[in-house]
Design goal:
By secondary structure, the protein is an all-beta fold. The protein has a single domain, classed as ApaG domain (Immunoglobulin-like), CATH 2.60.40.1470. Strands 4, 5, 6, 8 and 9 form a 5-stranded antiparallel β-sheet that branches.
């Protein structure tokens, strides 16, 4: 698990290899990840958007931007946490992801970015 704190918001990520799949005569490797967003600040915040950079050792880097996460824009009060799961497919057995969330601070009405730490996506049999 990797963890990072930005502006009082703690992001923790755990990953898991889910298996390989065939799509249009191509092998793809599926990974899931669970992200915990914990509000260590004294302000109420809302996750509004996400930005991902997905690195695949056999493919180009993919950028993904969107509103919220898994169809939600959660409001997280001080001391509380929000947990969600998602996933991605890679062309290779080795990759990584990182990015940031855009959050709104309800106290100051200002938006700010919370870094998502780089986490590795590795197929277990590909690691020495």
């Amino acid at each position: 698990m990797v963890t990072q704190i930005t502006s009082g918001i703690k992001i923790s990520v755990a990953t898991r290899f889910e298996g390989n799949y065939y799509k249009e005569h191509t092998v793809l490797y599926a990974f899931s990840y669970e992200i915990t967003i914990e509000n260590l600040s004294s302000d109420i915040v809302q996750l509004q958007a996400r930005h991902w950079e997905i690195f695949d050792s056999l493919n180009f880097t993919e950028m993904v931007d969107g509103e919220g996460v898994v169809g939600q824009t959660p409001i997280i009060i001080p001391g509380d946490k929000y947990v969600y799961s998602s996933g991605c497919m890679l062309h290779s057995t080795i990759g990584a992801m990182n990015g940031f969330y855009t959050m709104l601070n309800f106290t100051t009405s200002e938006s700010f970015e919370v870094q998502i730490p780089t986490f590795k996506l590795n197929v277990p049999f590909a690691i020495n």
